[in-house]
Amino acid sequence: MADYSSSFYDHIAQTSDAPMGLEIEKADGCHIYTTDGRSFVDLISGIAVSSLGHRHPAVIAAIKQQLDNHLHVMVYGEFIQKPQSAFAQLLCDQLPDQLDRVYFVNSGTEANEGALKLAKKSTGRSKFVAFNNSYHGDTHGSLSVTGRDVYRDPYLPLLPDVTFLDFNDPNQLDQIDEDTAAVIMEPIQGEGGIIPANPDWLNAVRNRCDETGALLIFDEIQTGFFRTGSLFAFQHYGVVPDILCLAKAMGGGMPMGAFVSSSDRFEAFKHDPPLNHVTTFGGHPVSCAAAHANLKTLLNGDFAQKAFKIAEMACHMLRGEGITEVRGRGAMLGLQLRDADLTQHVVEYCFEKGLILGWTLHSNSLIRIAPPLIIGDQLLEECFQTILDGVKKHG
Ligand code: PMP
Fold first, then answer.
1. 5-55+302-394: which CATH architecture?
2. For a substitution probing ligand 1, which of 221, 287, 332, 363 has the most ligand atoms within 8 Å of its CB?
3. pTM of the full structure
4. 58-300: CATH class
5. Which residues of the chain have pLDDT under 70?
6. What Å distances lie between residue 360 and 9, 48, 56, 303, CA to CA?
7. Residue 386 Cβ contacting ligand 1 at under 6 Å
């Protein structure tokens, strides 16, 4: 049998000196199976992607059907493709009236790139306001509004006109001014450590944007599609953004991103220059078919309730010495441990026991938990017990 493991290490560009290196045979539901016969529970959903679990039958059926019709036919925006139009319609039906137009792209960072460009183009301004500890992606524009120097410094200079404020600090909002094209933020910071926005503060940000004519961009790439217990996190807060960025769980496991705004605002993308934001594969018909089936299935289930149940179980079970806090919203949870050493031991212990946990880019003492929303109570209890055992053993 060919050894694909050595090809991975010899020919795939590596992103660290220590990749997890599981050799995947198959993934189904909450489980990932490896070629050496092990099985793992995926308690992080491929980093907040597989909300319906891996290979949900409805998503697989939609993909197979689309494969029999057509694959790529033309760059985004030219041809009428049923999977794109049908999905855009269903998505807009769930959103407030002013979010009535979808621009499809391929990833989260590309969604944010498009949103920043749309904000510049439609306001004629170039300043952005972003937040310390934010994460918006790794292409140059998104990195420019990402609030962590360790990721930015090696790539300076980035976009010149970005002001960073402290998340949840009401005293800095006067820095959003008449030169500001947009404020970009995650309603619940993900990589920054699972930090929800304070509702009063978020309303104050919205008001300040309205006063100054700055647009409000919500990066819901991680919080979208019921992860936090409502279809989108902005619905918890009753604060509607001018541009909504989506990806990750959107495609049901297929690559997919979008930025959503109003028809009026998107007028700016029709000319000067022609096409404005070309994306060859944006809104790929197979991804759209998958995304449509994914959203239909999510809307027909009780996943909002399920996300809250997951939070409840986590808060109830994950207590004890070494665990200083469980925070987050719905099934987007962070388990704050005493220190980095304990965190590493617990993650390694769980991995040995067949449990995949997440980490965040900006913290080494936080375990991230984002289970598939289809997970059964018993399996979840077993996973939490494994985490507790790990904390006890190393605490
Ligand atoms: N924004 C947020 C809030 C994210 O969590 C991520 C990915 N972790 C991104 C943007 C970038 O998404 P992608 O990896 O699809 O480019």
1. Alpha-Beta Complex (3.90)
2. 221
3. 0.98
4. alpha beta
5. 1-2
6. 24, 12, 26, 24
7. no
